[in-house]
């Protein structure tokens, strides 16, 4: 990533605040935040102005800035994925953000737009796809695969060789034993203990986690 380029954060809510903090901690220059909610325009997040919406972002040439996806997701990553796809189609690139307190092992691959927040641990051989989030103090053991725009929430723990599908959500404090497959769009509830595979689009809760239906 051309780290000398200034950044613009898309979104100005809670996840944007956490991502912005990571950007500032790593010494990035942040020009501002863009949010579709005009009531936020003119406010500040961690001292950085919320300057406008998508139209403001488009006043910058693609070659002159990089974007950071500050849209969060709790079970539904469609807004996050959609905004990234929209700007990528216009030629903008999304920065990969890694908080300086993160521990990352050897042979870890982070795709464009992946985000790893404060205190997280990612062990050797893991791969994070485009736009994936490993949130605060989450722990990802060896050779895991995290799909595009999947969200590993704060404090979640994945044992080795776990696969998390595109857009899936592993809730805060959940634990997933080794070798489990979590399908695309599935949602694992906070604090759950996942000991068997979870099918795509399903909601799984409890200890041990059981599929209780389709997430909506």
Question: How is this structure best described in words?
Answer:
An 8-stranded mixed beta sheet has the order 6-9-12-15-18-21-23-24, with helices on one face. It has a 6-stranded parallel beta sheet with strand order 7-10-13-16-19-22, with no helix packed on it. The radius of gyration is 17 Å and the shape is globular. The chain contains 3 helices and 24 strands. The chain has helices spanning 14-25, 54-57, 78-89, and strands at 7-10, 30-34, 44-45, 48-52, 66-69, 97-98, 103-104, 109-110, 115-116, 121-122, 127-128, 133-134, 139-140, 145-146, 151-152, 157-158, 163-164, 169-170, 175-176, 181-182, 187-188, 193-194, 202-205, 210-214. With 216 residues, the chain is α/β, with parallel strands linked by helices. Strand 23 and strand 24 (210-214) form a beta hairpin. This is Carbonic anhydrase. Belongs to the transferase hexapeptide repeat family.
Brief synopsis:
Pfam families: PglD_N. The protein is 13% helix and 29% strand.
Task: Kindly report how far apart the N and C termini lie.
Answer: 36 Å
Helical element count? Answer: 3
Please tell me what the overall shape is: globular
Helix fraction, binned, reads 10-25%
Instruction: Assign the CATH architecture of the largest domain.
Output: 3 Solenoid
Q: Mean pLDDT, rounded to whole units?
A: 95
Beta strand % = 25-35%
Widest β-sheet, arrangement of strands = 6-9-12-15-18-21-23-24
Question: Total strand count, please?
Answer: 24
Rg for CA atoms: 17 Å
CATH superfamily (homologous) name of the largest domain: Hexapeptide repeat proteins
Whole-number count of domains = 2
Can you tell me the residue ranges where pLDDT is under 50 for at least 5 consecutive residues?
none
